[in-house]
Specification:
The protein is 36% helix and 30% strand. It folds into two domains: 3-108, LON domain-like (Archaeosine Trna-guanine Transglycosylase, Chain: A, domain 4), CATH 2.30.130.40; 119-196, Methane Monooxygenase Hydroxylase, Chain G, domain 1, CATH 1.20.58. It has helices at 27-39, 122-131, 135-140, 148-158, 163-171, 175-196; strands spanning 3-10, 19-24, 43-49, 58-59, 62-73, 79-96, 102-108. It contains six helices and seven strands, in the order ββαβββββααααα. It starts with a strand and ends with a helix. The chain is globular. The protein is an alpha+beta fold. The protein has a five-stranded mixed β-barrel. A hairpin with a 5-residue loop joins strand 6 (79-96) and strand 7.
């Protein structure tokens, strides 16, 4: 059964359990935040891609619900939000509200069942455990390195990925396949990072 969900197209991909800080300044999104907080529900974050060959920007069909965990007024007067990713959804249709806010009819994707990490991905577990020793990262990550789904989403949320790569990882429904896709991306990021210092 589909459900109505306000959508926030952004040039980023939000993964389940990942943190996403936001600066809100458009009135339609300020109203959206107010409505979400009053009703106690989240909003949908969907990746917004640049213009295609026809000169039209477009957004992904699969996104993640963002739950507001905190808010504050920033020094520049804008509304600052702390959000965390929850459930993934598939957009079945959209319409624009009178104020321009995009509303989606969405179907929730089933949560991934906890599955152990296959032995060939043990290097990803080791990497995650190393990363969790850094206080700043461990504070922002909600991850179980022994759960294939949790490990994959956590790694995808912190790797420097292109938007299309990140969206591909979000859309994968098999946690082991996500780890398989992550392996070369992690190797590439590891090779690049020493030269960036």
């Amino acid at each position: 059964m589909s459900e109505s969900l306000p959508l926030f197209p952004l040039q980023t991909v939000l993964f389940p359990d990942a943190l996403l800080p936001l600066r809100i300044f458009e009135s339609r999104y300020i109203d959206m935040v107010r409505e979400c907080m009053r009703a106690g529900h989240g909003f949908g974050v969907v990746a917004r891609f640049p213009e295609d060959d026809q000169g039209e920007a477009w957004h992904a069909r699969i996104g993640t619900e963002a739950i507001i965990t905190d808010f504050t007024t920033l020094e520049d007067g804008l509304l600052g939000l702390a959000t965390r990713g929850q459930r993934r959804f598939l957009i079945e249709s959209t319409h624009a509200r009178h104020d321009g806010l995009l509303i989606g009819q969405v179907a929730w994707l089933p949560p991934e069942a906890a599955r152990p990490v296959a032995p060939q991905y043990a290097a990803l577990q080791t990497l995650m455990r190393e990363l969790l020793r850094h206080e700043q990262l461990s504070a922002q990550l909600q991850v179980d390195p022994d759960n294939a789904g949790s490990l994959g989403f956590a790694l995808a949320s912190i790797l420097p990925l292109e938007l299309k790569q990140a969206q591909q990882l979000l859309e994968i429904t098999d946690p082991q396949q996500r780890l398989e896709t992550l392996m070369p991306l992690v190797e590439q990021a590891t090779v690049q990072s020493p030269s960036e210092d």
